[in-house]
Design a protein that fits this description.
Helix content is about 35%, strand content about 20%. It is an alpha/beta fold. It folds into 3 domains: about 40 residues, no CATH class; about 180 residues, Rossmann fold, CATH 3.40.50.150; about 40 residues, no CATH class. The chain has a 7-stranded mixed beta sheet, with helices on both faces. Strands 8, 9, 10, 11 and 12 form a 5-stranded antiparallel beta sheet that branches. The structure holds S-adenosylmethionine. The site of S-adenosylmethionine (SAM) has 21 residues, from helix 3 and helix 6.
Length: about 300
């Protein structure tokens, strides 16, 4: 078994780490660990790409289009990008929305979230709440975000479309917008490449099977790679006007978290989640079971 340092060296030599790990471990689908390692090793590459004029223009057009879609649906007061990466999409989207929109993002990879934090600061955006989290156990409360959206983050999780859509839908209050590979809308070359990489499929069909109202499913007008065309899927959620009592939530029980002594404590799970470099680490695996944390740490 290769160590992460060896994998890092292979990444620097240009190897596709997701594919290599899948082959070496005989996996049919990418696992959380494979995705985390592969993306964490890439940290910094999206921000570096913003120095390229063509990429910067593409990103500007892509994010303006996402924001336009949002504004055609509602005036959101809160948005969450699930699988935020380095926030190079989130920053562009926010530039096209009202400045008082509350914004949130999470990602599997701590390094990418840390990079996202720096990137947003460099863009004069310091109010976004960021944390680590997993699409399978999103650390946000039910109905807590007017709009939840993704930009190619369901992509590597092929085979797990249903549980991921259920989680995203749970958190959304009004709309769920998915900008993800358009497998069914692509040609044979596109399908072959997406199959090879283990990309997600059939998001529209999965949403419909779950009984979610799909308002739109079509190719997105802006795509960087013709072999990985983005499709946009808009799903409506009519959660009513109920305001959630909390936003960040225990990833296991979706209940409130208490910030105590630089940690996040889940009174329901009796687990402490660390805050590392200012980033709450809210993946289930990040937690430490500590039923006496409050009593021992904060004696009356
Ligand atoms: C292709 S990048 C896109 C990043 C960002 N959304 C953007 O548009 O620039 C995919 C991101 O999704 C994250 N991701 C993939 N699977 C995830 C999961 N199960 N939970 C949380 N994040 C995930 C990866 O870590 C990576 O940062």
């Amino acid at each position: 078994m290769r160590t992460p340092r060896e994998l890092q060296a292979l990444y620097q030599q240009g190897k596709n780490i997701t594919q290599l790990l899948r082959e070496e471990h005989g996996l049919q689908h990418n696992t959380d660990t494979v995705i985390e390692i592969a993306y964490d090793l890439q940290t910094g590459s999206y921000i570096a790409a913003m120095n390229d004029a063509d990429m910067e223009r593409h990103k500007r057009e892509y994010t303006a289009e996402i924001a336009k879609t949002m504004l055609s649906l509602c005036q959101p007061t809160s948005i969450l990008e699930a699988g935020v990466g380095e926030a190079t999409t989130l920053s562009g989207v926010l530039q096209n929305l009202e400045p008082d929109v509350s914004s949130y993002g999470f990602d599997l990879s701590w390094s990418r979230v840390a990079c996202a934090k720096q990137w947003l600061l460099s863009q004069g955006m310091d109010t976004t709440t960021l944390c680590t989290g997993n699409l399978f156990h999103i650390p946000f409360a039910d109905n807590s975000m007017d709009i939840v959206y993704t930009s190619h983050s369901i992509e590597p999780n092929g085979g797990n479309e249903k549980p991921i859509l259920q989680e995203l839908f749970r958190v959304a209050k009004k709309f769920l917008i998915l900008c993800e590979p358009g497998y069914e809308l692509g040609n044979e070359d596109v399908k072959k490449r997406m199959d090879l990489h283990g990309y997600c499929k059939n998001l529209k069909g999965t949403a419909e099977d779950l009984g979610y109202p799909v308002l739109t499913h079509k190719l997105f007008p802006v795509t960087a790679n013709p072999l990985n065309p983005t499709a946009i899927t808009v799903i409506e959620k009519q959660a009513g006007s109920m305001a959630p009592s909390h936003v960040l939530a225990c990833p296991q029980y979706k209940t409130p978290l208490e910030q105590l002594d630089g940690m996040m404590f889940s009174p329901e799970a009796l687990v402490v989640y660390p805050i590392v470099g200012g980033i709450p680490c809210l993946r289930i695996g990040n937690g430490i079971f500590a039923s006496k944390y409050k009593e021992l740490h904060f004696p009356r």
